[in-house]
Write a structure and sequence with these properties.
Elements (H helix, E strand, L loop, with lengths): L1 H25 L9 H15 L8 H6 L9 H19 L4
Length: 96
């Protein structure tokens, strides 16, 4: 019988957790922290990180100098390639 009680407690706690998480999705999130300064600093840090500019490497300039290998950072190259692709798709699908 003891095992049965434990499983019902676990099931009840799972249902309670599921109900709480379902309720939190529909209700807007509210900040209960009293340290508003820390949140604004964290938000600023996230914003600065998101706003990092992509450094474009001038490949044509490197080729004109005779360089065959141009060192670039993979993160910047991937971002640049994706943005170029995305813009070409947007322009290609634009209405005349």
């Amino acid at each position: 019988m003891a095992k049965k009680k434990k499983t019902t407690k676990k099931t009840a706690s799972r249902k309670k957790t599921a109900a709480q998480s379902a309720g939190s999705e529909s209700a807007p999130a509210r900040s209960t922290s009293t340290s508003g300064g820390k949140q604004s600093r964290a938000a600023k840090a996230r914003l600065e990180e998101a706003m990092n500019r992509i450094e474009r490497t001038d490949i044509q300039h490197a080729l004109s100098r005779g360089d065959r290998v141009v060192p670039v950072e993979i993160d910047n190259q991937m971002k640049e390639a994706y943005l170029d692709y995305a813009m070409s798709v947007i322009v290609g699908r634009a209405l005349p």
